[in-house]
Amino acid sequence: MRVESPTSSETRRKTVHYAESNHAEYLTAFVPAVQPYVDVYKSAGFKPVRRSIRISWELTEQPARHDDVQTKELSKEHANEAAEVWVEGLRPYWDWWIEEQGGPEELKSWVKESVGTEPGWIGAFLDEKLVGLAILRPDAYGPGEARFNGAYVIPRFREQRVGSALMKATIREGHRLNQKKMKVYTLAFLDYLAPGSLLYLKSGGKIEAEYLQLQRK
Ligand SMILES: CC(C)(COP(=O)(O)OP(=O)(O)OC[C@H]1O[C@@H](n2cnc3c(N)ncnc32)[C@H](O)[C@@H]1OP(=O)(O)O)[C@@H](O)C(=O)NCCC(=O)NCCS
User: Fold this and answer.
1) What is the tens place of the pLDDT at every residue in 122-175?
2) Is 58's pLDDT higher than 80?
3) Is the domain of 29 the same as that of 75?
4) Domain limits at 123?
5) What is the CATH number of the domain that holds 156?
6) Which atom of ligand 1 is nearest to the CA of 199?
7) What percent of the chain has pLDDT over 70?
8) Helices (H), the chain
9) How far apart (Å, rounded) are the C-alpha atoms in residues 183 and 210?
10) CB within 10 Å: which end of the chain, N or C, has fewer?
11) pTM metric for this prediction
């Protein structure tokens, strides 16, 4: 007998009772691989045996692809534009983080100070318009160990290969600056990866560790 994701303990209790009263040989549950849901089942005597993954294909959408994305290091003259692009490029995935950092204006003023004075700001341009950027911090974790602060593309230019071009340019820049390794801490949702993680895995990154963000109100 198979139980499809009842996550409340009352529903789960009724289901187990129903299965027992029908003398089911065994009971299989199928829940999101998220610890709190799993714990509900463990407490009722279920043991994890294997995982399933859901994979989907969008068969009707054929996004535009640009092979003409130009990438280059940003200089002081791009600072204001870069500030706008970064905040726009963070949305909507990082809205919570923008608020945590004190709001968009706070972040923009940091970009304006940093672009052109610190190395590692890489811009992506389509028809000379800045549409995305990536941030590499050489030697941030020690000699030759860079921190990668991520790739960001403004929403209407996503899924057109701009992110991929930024990753190529970032890796090239890492080599040029004699970096042996780079690391990023990025976002994943509870039961699936965000586009950024997928882009990073596609460009050769490997998952080293996973963390869980917790919140209490
Ligand atoms: C992550 C991001 C930079 C990707 O940029 P992009 O220009 O859309 O990326 P590309 O078109 O080059 O796509 C490259 C790969 O990224 C992944 N990807 C991009 N968008 C995706 C989406 N909506 N869902 C799932 N995977 C996605 C895919 O693996 C894709 O490869 P594929 O097209 O061969 O499947 C963009 O979604 C973004 O700006 N997100 C918000 C900012 C962010 O969270 N950045 C990470 C911060 S650490």
Assistant:
1) 999 999 999 999 999 999 999 999 999 999 999 999 999 999 999 999 999 999
2) no
3) no
4) 70-202
5) 3.40.630.30
6) 16
7) 92
8) 9-21, 35-42, 79-90, 95-100, 104-114, 162-176, 195-202
9) 13
10) C
11) 0.85
